[in-house]
Amino acid sequence: RHPGWPAKLGPLRVPAGILAVRPVRLRDAGDWSRVRLRDREHLEMWEPTGIGPWPDRNAFWSWPSQWLALRGLARRGQCLPFTITVDGRFAGQITVGNVIRASLRSAWIGYWVSSDIVRGGVATGAVALVTDHVFDFGGLHRLEATVRPENTPSLRVLGKAGYRQEGLFERYLDVAGGWRDHFCYAITKEETGDGLVSRLVAKGLAERV
Ligand code: ACO
Fold it and tell me: CA 11, CA 18: separation in Å to the nearest integer?
């Protein structure tokens, strides 16, 4: 068993509903594929360039191999791949990846939320839950999030959750078919005080249930 994995986080009440986070499952295939095939315009411009057409990469039958790969990485302590749910229904994914231990103890965090429930505090709540979890139970000290400067909603999420902007990584990631600049946002354990969830609750942006 690796520290902090597997885990179920929440629930938390946010404007969109009751938010929870749990490990990805093989049986997420149907929801995962349905939402992603529908949400191509919402997601593709922000995601790493994939091999092959979107409909193939996001077909029902392409989930089992992705799930297996994520589960393998999670078992080796290199990744924490979560499904986000709202009112018990599949609502997106949030992943902590490229976990480095030893004296760095750092990883990246990334997320997406189904287009039919955006602007309801889901991503912000999920980032807060997962950040607190990896600092308290995952043995990590720092998380990094890289975001395209054009991605206003995601910049807003990180700002609300309490991440700091550290700089601009030029031509950093192969996203939507090109090398895209990304702002680097980060947070270390010392900055979180009583936790990011507690801070959201204090600001009235979420409620523990
Ligand atoms: N212009 C300005 N602000 C906007 C816009 C817009 N077009 N759309 C949303 N926002 C604001 C919202 O109003 C809200 O801020 P507020 O609370 O101050 O009003 C904020 O952006 C969104 O906050 P949440 O509701 O917590 O986030 P949400 O659940 O809507 O999810 C997310 C945001 C994940 C970015 C979603 O839009 C999404 O999945 N986008 C496509 C994929 C993506 O970009 N993922 C992030 C990649 S970067 C990374 O993973 C580190």
Answer: 6
Residue 17: phi and psi, rounded to 5, are 145, -155
Give, using CA atoms, the residue closest to atom 14 of ligand 1: 119
Compute the distance from residue 119 Cα to the ligand 1 centre, in Å.
Answer: 6
Band the pLDDT of 92: cuts 50, 70, 90.
very high
Q: What angle do CA 45, 40, 49 make, to 5 degrees?
A: 45
CA pair distance 74, 136, nearest whole angstrom: 17
Q: Which atom of ligand 1 is nearest to the CA of 122?
A: 29
For ligand 1, say whether the CB of 154 is within 6 Å of any of its atoms. Answer: yes
Residue 208 main-chain phi, psi, to 5 deg: -75, 135
User: Cα of 104 to ligand 1 centre, how many Å?
Assistant: 29
The domain segmentation of the chain, as residue ranges, is: 9-208
Residue 123 confidence (pLDDT): 98
| Among 91, 127, 92, CA closest to 108 | 127
Name the nearest CA neighbour of 195 among 136, 124, 118, 121: 136
Question: Can you name the CATH fold of 9-208?
Answer: Aminopeptidase (3.40.630)
Instruction: Please report the ipTM that was assigned to this predicted complex.
Output: 0.98
Q: How do residues 13-35 score in pLDDT, each as one tens digit?
A: 999 999 999 999 999 999 999 99
As beta bridge partners, residue 100 has: 106
Q: What is the DSSP letter of 106?
A: E
Could you give the CA distance from residue 176 to residue 46 in angstroms, rounded to a whole number?
7
